[in-house]
Specification:
The chain is α+β, with helices and mostly antiparallel strands. It is 40% helix and 20% strand. The chain has a four-stranded mixed sheet with strand order 1-2-4-3, covered by helices on one side. α1 crosses α3. The two termini are 25 Å apart.
Length: 109
């Protein structure tokens, strides 16, 4: 799957394993590799410790990594401390669907 991020094409790889991408061993559920323009999302399999709605969580992880890509492609990741701040990135990833819904309701998007 591919997505356009401010004119740059990123490949989204879902169901990745730690054997393919060792960074996933560190409990990361996904990562954005700016050098290869890839967003990698781990294989989310249900177990006793996982969330019950993995589809919803996977969508949130994809949004989170996409926000990283947008920050990088706009220069904010490199040129500001807050552009890489995980709290801000997560806030945007979590709140964005609610914001879009409000914008649509107000017919401003």
């Amino acid at each position: 799957m591919k997505v356009n991020v401010l004119g740059t094409e990123y490949q989204i790889i879902k169901n990745a394993t730690a054997s393919e991408y060792p960074i996933l061993e560190s409990k990361a559920d996904g990562f954005c590799d700016f050098s290869t323009k890839k967003i990698v999302i781990c294989d989310m399999k249900p177990d006793d410790y996982s969330m019950k709605n993995l589809e919803m969580y996977e969508e949130k992880v994809i949004r989170h990594e996409l926000v990283h890509a947008f920050m990088y492609e706009s220069g904010l990741d490199v040129n500001s401390e807050w552009g890489r701040d995980e709290t801000l990135i997560d806030w945007i990833a979590i709140q964005f669907p609610k914001m879009v819904e409000s914008f649509k309701m107000m017919e401003v998007i």
